[in-house]
Design goal:
Shape: globular
Number of domains: 1
Radius of gyration: 19 Å
Number of strands: 0
Order of helices and strands: HHHHHHHHHHHH
Number of helices: 12
Distance between the termini: 11 Å
Length: 322
């Protein structure tokens, strides 16, 4: 991917910019990603009734990676062999599908789902900071306003869960998970992944993650506490394929066509769908707090996405770059 320096100064600037997506495409992708991940919190809770956190995380990577690599190969794609490319894929996999996913499952096992959603939604804030450091990007007043609105909405939505019972270790795990997820998202924009499609990219990184997570889980947790039943395999299948393989492939696609901050704004929508699926699956009632928080989240994401696609003309009215 050629480095492209865009001096037109978008509201959220990315000096390494791919083809720009329309706000409608980005919003649609964000909603779909957030919907799939939002259901993941309920799926993980069900699966954790039958197994341990890191073993669950490792099984997700094995299943998700196998499905994606098989799909990519079936489409005629070749498994990447370039060492430099594989090294870059490893960095993404270690960040997002190893550290972030492992700590996410572990954190969800320790704290209420609403609180987990709130902590996970800090990911766009980390993304903005890392983009500033690695991509020399900046967030304008409009972009920053969208981030603040989204975070406030998430805080309002998850506030009923903040009852003081959340364990510190779970909160710290989820913060580290959000940080690792943010770094991996920015890294995909920073480095060249044009030689591989998003499907193959995520499939390979999931396999790399499995190579690390499986032995770690077997050594630390073992399989004695795992119940190999439908109660495990049904939520595991959802957590591995729609909520893992599909969503990370979509995220990789969005990152190529939008800014990292836009892609990261997905995290603001996750608690909204988490509450929705809680209502559908568990019969939880949506109250005024949930409705207000949900509306603020949608507004914040809309502002962030729109900000990333607005440009101010330069004096020369042209772009610089190579």
């Amino acid at each position: 991917m050629d480095d492209v320096t865009d001096n037109t100064t978008a509201d959220v600037v990315d000096d390494h910019r791919s083809d720009q997506a329309t706000p409608l495409f980005v919003l649609a992708a964000i909603v779909l990603i957030a919907m799939l991940i939002g259901g993941n919190f309920s799926a993980l809770k069900f699966a954790l009734d039958h197994t341990t956190p890191f073993l669950l995380a490792s099984m997700r990577t094995v299943i998700g990676g196998t499905v994606l690599v098989a799909l990519a190969v079936g489409r005629g794609e070749r498994f990447p062999t370039d060492r430099a490319l594989l090294a870059r894929i490893f960095v993404v996999g270690f960040s997002i599908t190893t550290v972030s996913s492992g700590l996410l499952v572990f954190g969800v096992s320790k704290v209420p789902a609403g609180f987990a959603s709130l902590i996970s939604s800090t990911m766009p804030l980390f993304t903005a900071v890392i983009s500033l450091l690695l991509l020399r990007a900046r967030v304008s007043r409009l972009g920053a306003l969208g981030l603040v609105i989204g975070f406030v909405g998430t805080a309002v939505l998850a506030s009923p869960a903040l009852d003081g019972d959340a364990k510190l270790v779970g909160a710290v795990s989820l913060i580290c998970s959000a940080l690792a997820w943010a770094f991996g998202t920015v890294y995909m924009k920073w480095k060249d992944f044009s030689q591989v499609t998003p499907i193959m990219l995520v499939g390979v990184q999931l396999w790399m993650s499995a190579a690390m997570l499986v032995p770690f889980a077997l050594i630390v947790e073992g399989t004695a506490d795992t119940d190999w039943s439908l109660g495990l395999f049904v939520p595991l299948t959802y957590a591995a394929i729609p909520a893992n393989a599909v969503t990370f492939s979509l995220i990789a696609t969005v990152v190529r066509r939008a800014t990292p901050t836009q892609a990261a704004s997905t995290a603001y929508m996750i608690p909204l769908f988490g509450v929705f699926f809680g209502w559908v699956i568990r019969g939880e009632v949506l109250g005024i707090v949930e409705l207000v928080g949900g509306l603020l989240i949608v507004a914040g994401v809309s502002v962030v996405v729109t900000a990333g696609n607005r440009r101010r003309p330069t004096a020369s009215g042209s772009k610089g770059g190579r």
